[in-house]
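Q: Structure tokens for this one, please.
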Amino acid sequence: MNARQEILARIRRAVAGAPEVEIPRGYRTHVTLEDPVGRFAERVGDYRAVVHVVPAAEVPGRLAELVAGRRMAAPEGLPWLEAVRGAAAELILDGPGLSVAELDRVDGVVTGCAVAVAETGTIVLDERQGRRALTLVPDYHLCVVQAAQIVASVPEALARLTPTSPLTWVSGPSATSDIELDRVEGVHGPRTLEVVISA
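A: Here is the predicted structure, written as tokens:
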């Protein structure tokens, strides 16, 4: 008998004959916020992301301003693709032939999101935003979040997601700290996150 088996055997002996206990599962799954868009903008801004809240009709124009003259990558099917294509110096669509080296040479990536969490300032990306490499290799990520995609809490976000889909949860620009708490950005993903909230 190894140590693990011995420990488990002791636990079984200790609880033998104990009554069954029902474990309450009344977790909080919904939070009411007066202004989820405002809370999300505040929280994602706390993570040092650049945030723009614009009316839906102005999103294409704002994207055009932000990508002007840049070499950008994007997933196919992005609703604002034509605005980006018209303003970017070059637009590269994600695909199986696009290598990490090619992604490293673009100025940034523009995507949408699957859902965003107001309480945590978190953006969740799924397969519709392209491969993970698309949003992790370029140094700049421009993400469009629609007001209807913002939920108050993480449980509400989970309810909207497909559990079998690969997901990337983003809370601000990529950052890490060493033991002396010196912050370094851009180690595990984009150094700059810019968020356009379509209100």
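A few notes: The mean pLDDT is 90. Helices lie at 3-15, 36-46, 59-67, 81-87, 100-105, 132-136, 154-160.
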